Amino acid sequence: MLDLIVRNASFADGRRGFDVGVQAGRIAAVEPHLQADAGQTIDAGGLLLTPPFVDSHFHMDATLSVGLPRRNRSGTLLEGIALWGELKPHLTQEAIVERALAYCDWAVARGLLAIRSHVDVCDPRLLAVDALLEVKKTVAPYIDLQLVAFPQDGVYRSPGAMDLLKEALRRGVDVVGGIPHFERTMEDGRASVRALCEIAAAQGLLVDMHCDETDDPLSRHVETLAAETVRLGLQGRVVGSHLTSMHSMDNYHVSKLIPLMAEADLGAIANPFANMVLMGRHDTYPKRRGMTRVPELMAAGLTVALGQDSTMDPWYGLGSGDMLDVAHMAVHVAQMTGLDDMAACFAAVTDNAARLMHLEGYGLAPGCRADMVLLEAHDPVEAIRLRATRLKVIRRGKVIAETPMQRPSLALPGRRGDVSFLWVPAKP
């Protein structure tokens, strides 16, 4: 007797008609026509069953703070940073926790069950660090929350930031962060990458740096990040987030840079919403998109993920925690509308993101944790097209959120009353 069986499910890799059996919070069997009984059975009806969505780049300490202390009137990155500086002295731990937990409720409803959040460590009180460590404990039964010690104002540019970062790690923050392009000089930026990677290597920690989030093609800190990764033996444990300067670099330099990144097994995280609206602000026309070279990085074999980055905060006043929205934006911005490309964007908010976070037991195979989402779609492309309804969200074999199928009702003569947006393309 199993605890749960999800029957007649389709998988992102194209397999159809499979059953998934769950026992004690783990997947016990994945096979067609599973011969077993269960305490609960869910008929997937041929729809898409996927591991949960993963957001590998977010700022939970700032989420839902839009309008505090005022709105970002220009919508620019620099005004957002200035606004956050104005807000920090007025933050309370209770308010950060309240907003973060509200966002986590949204995340669960969207099937988003793993988040890597950067947390600002440049406040001498480390208020946000303590708040998100509390949130991490609270949501542990239903969300894997990983925290990055992020020196928002520059680890050298902000007095005492290096000591505060080390203290945040001591208190239990998981990952070493950085922002080399925001240091006062290029040399300070390179030095910060070296120092922060050495801290991670000494403590056996992962690294995730905001890197070259600028339109300046001469911002090349990702080179240093890749070189330090190799020097310190951190291959597969280091991520460069944003990397938007690569959008502005000449092709010859990129032809040298991407192999260096591949040698370091460097992960890359693009953030389509933020990259699109914050980059290219000094351009007239033509106006640069700003997002890094996602298809080229994928083609070189790098693990590339997509992040939400911000939701209703000083930098981005929109968003809802929907990772399919993120994939949908990436498909368009990166011109990845080929079938394989769209499937790759789906993987970038599921499997790839989980790989960069080193999530244990992620997937739909025997032995994996029984964390799954049933979508109102037949395949990843349809899921992205529709930003598909999350019919069932399952954590450790238990349904923790569900949403009814979306069936608008029409009152048109001669037409059916209920409308389904599902559509199986005709075969040639």
TrEMBL record:
- Please list the GO biological process terms of this entry: cytosine catabolic process
Keywords for the protein's UniProt record, in alphabetical order:
Hydrolase, Metal-binding
| GO molecular function annotation | cytosine deaminase activity; isoguanine deaminase activity; metal ion binding
The chain positions of domain Amidohydrolase read 40-400
Question: According to the lineage, what is the superkingdom?
Answer: Bacteria
Q: Which Gene3D superfamilies would you find in this protein's record?
A: Metal-dependent hydrolases, Urease, subunit C, domain 1
Pfam families annotated for this entry?
A: Amidohydro_3
Its protein name is Cytosine deaminase
Q: Which organism is it from?
A: Reyranella soli
Gene symbol of the encoding locus: codA1
